[in-house]
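Posting this for the archive.
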Amino acid sequence: MIKLLIVDDHAIVRSGLKQLFLLMGDIVVAGEASNGAEALEALRNEQFDLLLLDLTMPGISGIGLIGHIRAINTKVPILVLSMHCELQVAKRALQAGASGFVTKGCMPDTLVNAVRNVASGGRFVDPVISEQMMFEKRVPGENAPHERLSERELHVMKLIALGKSIKEIANELFISNKTISTHKARVMQKMNFQSSAEMIRYAADYGLVE
């Protein structure tokens, strides 16, 4: 019997998952958590065979939560169940210590197979993500897009992604607000970002900030 801990901030999602696994003869939902803090507490108090983890929740979540889980429990297999279907998100989750990644748009049979595979020590990647991996362009010697930035531009980009304002960054780097704004504008132009939100998302996807 696979003892499962479901971590998702939406009660209706947890309820639906419980109904699905109730139909299986070898999977039991032994615990639930609606946020990262509850998940960590549950892992401290009980042993589970698999952690089914949503990445986007209030408080500690995402790749950072996987790191916290690994700090207190290095063995429990983690299967990410995410609304995100971007290749970079899946890669970062797997690199952080997850053993599998499936999207919330997958078929029930796919999720059940993923749970069984990961719980038994295997790895599983949603076919949607696998297809992206298969057809990902790999050009020998090609660098990540942000490597075209200067050292100062990259530093400014990271600080913006951390949520710091132009004034805060200027004070930290001991340069003017205007200079920081210029660096930001160059980053936007070189990276073809349309908004600061795109910049922040890129930084997260490429592991530039935690």
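The domain at 2-134 is CATH 3.40.50.2300 (Rossmann fold). The two ends are 35 Å apart (CA to CA).
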